[in-house]
Amino acid sequence: MHLKLWVPILLILGGISWMMVTNLNASDQSFKVNELPSDLTDLTQQIKIKGRIVAGSIDKTVPPVKFVIQEGGRELPVRYVGKEPLPDLFKDHAETQVTGTMAKDGVFDAVHLQAKCASKYEAMAPTETANQPAQVN
């Protein structure tokens, strides 16, 4: 009778342990551009990198789309090789997260790209007129 009870318990515990180990191994490393190691050739696994798109760096003339992201004074060239269309918010100065791998030529090959317009999420400063009483004519 004890065997019938322990076998399912052990199978469940084994399954949970296996899921935890595989999720830990498959998790992506995430960096800001200025947090990347100086030797990028060591980054052979898929990683996520966050930064802002450098103004004037987007080149859509010939696929793949190329651009540069920066954070904290450090820049990283990116090639978007993904199959999804570019997000609507993909433009100069947009906060961006790219997922992919480092190529041997020093360019980051992104297979996934997310962009958001930081100005949409920043609190707006009150204007001078907001503090003045309304005038009635």
What does this structure look like?
This protein has a single domain, classed as OB fold (Dihydrolipoamide Acetyltransferase, E2P). The chain is built from two helices and six strands. It has helices at residues 2-26, 118-121, and strands spanning 29-32, 47-53, 65-71, 74-80, 95-102, 108-116. Strands 2-3-4-6-5 form a five-stranded mixed barrel.
CATH class equals: Mainly Beta
Give the CATH H-level superfamily.
Nucleic acid-binding proteins
CATH architecture: Beta Barrel
H and E string: HEEEEEEH
Q: Return Rg in Å.
A: 23 Å
What is the percent of helical residues?
A: 10-25%
The rounded distance between the terminal residues' Cα atoms is: 90 Å
- In which order are the strands of the major sheet placed? 2-3-4-6-5
Q: Give a quick account of the main beta sheet: strands, pairing sense, barrel closure.
A: 5 strands, mixed, barrel
Strand-pairing-aware structural class: alpha/beta
**The CATH topology, please?**
OB fold (Dihydrolipoamide Acetyltransferase, E2P)
Number of helices: 2
